[in-house]
Amino acid sequence: MSAAEEEQRCAAAAGAAVGGEDHEGGGGGGLVSGLLGKAKGFVAEKVAQIPKPEASLERVSFRSVTRQGIELHSHVDINNPYSHRIPICEVTYTFKSDGKVIASGTMPDPGWIAASGSTKLELPVKVPYDFIVSLMKDLGGDWDIDYVLEVGLTIDLPVIGTFTIPLTTEGVIKLPTFRDLF
Question: Domain Water stress and hypersensitive response spans what residues (predicted)?
Fold first, then answer.
């Protein structure tokens, strides 16, 4: 007897034992699939109730001017409800202004989230000069950049696996003037 025939016979026998009917015509899978569906729903509900780390994203601020461009930075605050530290797999970011992607990148393996506490992770964003030139129309007379920063914080939780916490912040960066630099 093949494995499929054996499984069908067992399912029919289980259906007969529970419902008192003989399901030889291949209908015995209804009970098994129903039980599997209920089990999946139960597990999904329990996993959804498990506390997960939470994160928040600070506003972007100006950091420095280099030969390659302007360096901005933000901080990601991560709170860990567990009594053991959790690895951060990666942090991805996209910095947009006026609907255009100005800078994007990935920080692979940036470290760990401290056990039962909070971890502050610095997120550097490097904007090349060629993008700054294209932003000149947005700068206008007020010398600021309207932005949106989207961050994906991917962490690895035991039992649940890896998942990504999406974060977004938007605001205005006031760029330094020549007077501020010298």
Answer: 55-172
